[in-house]
Design goal:
Layout (H helix, E strand, L loop, with lengths): L12 H6 L1 H14 L5 H14 L11 H9 L7 E4 L7 E8 L2 E12 L8 E7 L13 E8 L1
């Protein structure tokens, strides 16, 4: 599993500098497929995505559904739904902003039954390609949510 904070010391400078949305899609693909994405595989996927025009040379994701299809080796995604309220979907990407910066994180939620019984609870996980405990993380505000369907 790719670890939170992978972007901070990533050997590909472009991914290190601008790769948060791309890495969120890699995490999403890993959640779906269970496949291990090594650093070499992530770099190879970036090269393929750039050749296909899914990302540009500064890691701007141009076609998220096509990129997610590439990463999952499927054809199940076709559009991005952007919304201002938290989606009910199981997986989505959160666009965070602060003056002069935009950052993306991957979120997943599910219903969990407590150990020993009781009412089901909503469980939630946020994955951040940068260190989620860095002081600057608290300075971002939610701009929008992106669900790829």
């Amino acid at each position: 599993m790719i670890k939170q904070g992978i972007q901070t010391n990533f050997p590909d400078e472009r991914i290190q500098k601008w790769g948060c949305y791309f890495l969120c899609l890699v995490k999403w693909a890993q959640e779906i497929t269970g496949e291990e994405f090594t650093i070499d595989k992530i770099c190879a996927e970036r090269n393929e995505a750039e050749q296909k025009g899914y990302v540009d040379d500064e890691m701007t994701v141009i076609n998220a559904p096509a990129l997610l299809n590439q990463l999952t080796r499927s054809n199940m995604f076709s559009t991005v739904r952007r919304q201002s309220t938290e989606p009910q979907d199981e997986r989505y990407i959160v666009c965070l902003t602060k003056p002069g910066y935009t950052h993306f994180v991957f979120e997943k939620k599910w219903i969990e039954s407590p150990f020993g019984g009781g009412a089901p609870i909503n469980a939630h996980f946020r994955w951040d390609s940068l260190d989620p405990h860095r002081p600057a993380a608290a300075q971002y505000e939610v701009d929008s949510y992106r669900v790829i369907i």
